[in-house]
């Protein structure tokens, strides 16, 4: 049985590109199979904001942020809340290794490839309210200059160089349907050749089968992504600990993020663990210019918007914008509704609203200093203002009574009582006008403004929503948004897939989201943000280096 390459990599997303890069720099040949067309090289990572979790970085130190491996690992473990002795064995070890990578080689590894970082650092997932609960104790979200397309570029260019040198062959529109094994060893893949597609990146492509294929190698690396584009699979695996399954969700990733390789791997004998761990956002809005079906965009909010549930009740502490994503999701599901509201004004919109995604941040994606200056000028960023004008989830009015009426009109449900909403807004406004008070969100806003990055570019000066001179009032209907798979193929620290009996699956490796970003669930129950792209890089790197070392 002749080999078509030393290694077959299934999936040309970020993890697949990293694994391929590491293999080819060691002189190994790679056959890269991808079910989409060439425009989709880089996969889901292309659409990302490009945030990366780094620990004790020069950017942090310049801003006066004191961080350490020990503090970051404590935050990680508090957030992950690992509690499954059998299936959390490898995730725990991956957590230790990944945090060490983020505190050590990660930044230089990416910089040596040409990646650069913005001088400011974001503070994502600010936490569950105590030092030992979920969340980042300090800002760690580093913005890559060029966002997701740039981190894809630094690996894709090297893969294309290896392709020109004859070390890489890429087979687009090749969908893997089976992992091939003999005597317990993975040695290839077979599947369907799909009809050529000219669809642009992210657009759902046809699944017409026009042929079959079978390829062999010394090993197979699965890097096919998660389940976020397959809402049926998301609901099938819905976590019981989150409560009821939502009836309505937006989709935060392209349709090709379908989770097929999880079942295919399991049928071949791989261990799939922690299926019920997943990461979905609470601040989704309908994309007025969609690329894929049900396309939603996440708002990356500052902490000042007032958050109401569907009935007008204010979300309790610590469920403030940007603090505890999964805790907030669990609370929202407990209300019996699948949507909530942000209340804000134009002044907050201009300073605090950002949108997730490379295409929603053209200044960072295009690496344009001139466009970047627009963020400090008066007015909302162009993509945010476009959503305010065209987005179906935005209500803009000059006074609160009309705003509440517009909110009820948007949903077709008269759930919001103007008098009750006005009382809640007025009570919080009063706290804004005092130097001291008991409102924990107001205290959090004031504390956050003590961080120079937040004060300069991220958080509006505290003020009341009913104060004059801050522009129109704005309500944004927020919907639940599918995103990341936190469980998957169980792997050891070499990214080698494990079997249910705890033994290693010879010849089979996995990296990226299909492996829960390492080990079958390195995040446990919660992510600290900036860790998804980095998880693809670290696990893909481990797979490539292990195979380059161990192959005959």
TrEMBL record:
Instruction: Please name the Pfam families in this protein's record.
Output: FAD_binding_2
Keyword line:
Flavoprotein, Oxidoreductase
Does Flavoprotein show up as a keyword for this record? yes
Extract one GO molecular function annotation from the record. Answer: oxidoreductase activity, acting on the CH-CH group of donors
Membrane-spanning regions, if any? none
tRNA processing recorded as keyword = no
Question: SUPFAM superfamilies from the xrefs?
Answer: FAD/NAD(P)-binding domain
Q: Which domain of life is it from?
A: Bacteria
Tell me which residues make up the FAD-dependent oxidoreductase 2 FAD-binding domain.
6-533
Q: What is this protein called?
A: FAD-dependent oxidoreductase 2 FAD-binding domain-containing protein
Q: What is the lineage of its organism?
A: Bacteria, Bacillati, Actinomycetota, Actinomycetes, Actinopolysporales
């Amino acid at each position: 049985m002749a080999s078509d390459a030393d290694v077959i990599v299934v999936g040309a997303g970020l993890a697949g590109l990293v694994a391929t890069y590491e293999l080819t720099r060691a002189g190994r040949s790679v056959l890269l199979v991808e079910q989409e067309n060439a425009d989709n090289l880089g996969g889901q990572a292309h659409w990302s904001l490009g945030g990366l979790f780094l620990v004790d970085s020069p950017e942090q130190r310049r801003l006066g942020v004191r961080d350490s491996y020990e503090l970051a690992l404590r935050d990680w473990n508090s957030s992950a809340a690992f509690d499954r002795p059998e299936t959390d064995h490898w995730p725990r070890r991956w957590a230790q290794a990944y945090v060490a990578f983020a505190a050590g080689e990660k930044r230089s590894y990416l910089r040596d490839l040409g990646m650069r970082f913005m001088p400011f650092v974001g503070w994502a997932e600010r936490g569950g309210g105590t030092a030992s609960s979920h969340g980042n104790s300090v800002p760690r979200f580093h913005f890559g200059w060029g966002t997701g397309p740039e981190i894809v570029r630094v690996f894709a260019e090297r893969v294309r160089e290896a392709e020109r040198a004859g070390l890489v062959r890429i087979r687009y529109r090749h969908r893997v349907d089976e992992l091939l094994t003999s005597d317990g060893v993975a040695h290839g893949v077979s599947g369907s050749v799909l009809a050529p597609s000219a669809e642009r990146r992210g657009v759902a492509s046809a699944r017409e089968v026009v042929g079959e294929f079978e390829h062999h190698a010394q090993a197979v690396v699965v890097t096919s992504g998660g389940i976020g584009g397959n809402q049926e699979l998301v609901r099938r695996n819905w976590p019981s600990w989150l409560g009821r399954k939502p009836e309505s969700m937006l989709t935060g990733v392209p349709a090709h993020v379908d989770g097929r390789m999880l079942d295919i791997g399991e049928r071949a004998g791989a261990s799939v663990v922690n299926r019920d761990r997943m990461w979905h956002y609470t601040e989704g809005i309908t994309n007025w210019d969609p690329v894929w079906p049900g396309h939603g965009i996440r708002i990356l909010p500052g902490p000042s918007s007032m958050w109401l549930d569907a009935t007008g009740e204010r979300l309790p502490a610590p469920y403030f914008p940007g603090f505890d994503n999964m805790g907030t999701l669990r609370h929202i599901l407990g209300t019996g509704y699948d949507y909530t509201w942000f209340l804000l004004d134009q002044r907050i919109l201009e300073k605090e609203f950002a949108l997730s995604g490379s295409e929603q941040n053209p200044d960072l994606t295009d690496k344009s200093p001139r466009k970047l200056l627009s963020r400090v000028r008066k007015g909302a960023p162009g993509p945010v203002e476009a959503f305010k004008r065209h987005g179906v989830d935005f209500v803009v009015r000059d006074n609160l009574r009309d705003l509440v009426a517009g909110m009820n009109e948007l949903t077709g449900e008269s759930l919001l009582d103007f008098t009750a909403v006005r009382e809640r807004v007025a009570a919080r406004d009063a706290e804004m006008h005092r130097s001291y008070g008991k409102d924990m969100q107001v205290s959090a806003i004031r504390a956050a403004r003590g961080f120079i990055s937040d004060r300069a570019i991220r958080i509006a000066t505290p003020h009341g929503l009913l104060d004059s001179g801050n522009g129109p009032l704005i309500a944004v209907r927020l919907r639940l948004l599918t995103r990341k798979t936190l469980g998957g193929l169980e792997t050891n620290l070499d990214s080698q897939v494990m079997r249910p009996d705890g033994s290693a699956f010879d010849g089979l490796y996995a990296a990226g989201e299909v492996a829960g970003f390492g080990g079958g669930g390195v995040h446990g129950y919660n992510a600290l943000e900036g860790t998804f792209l980095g998880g693809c890089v670290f696990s893909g790197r481990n797979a490539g280096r292990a195979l380059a070392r161990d192959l005959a």
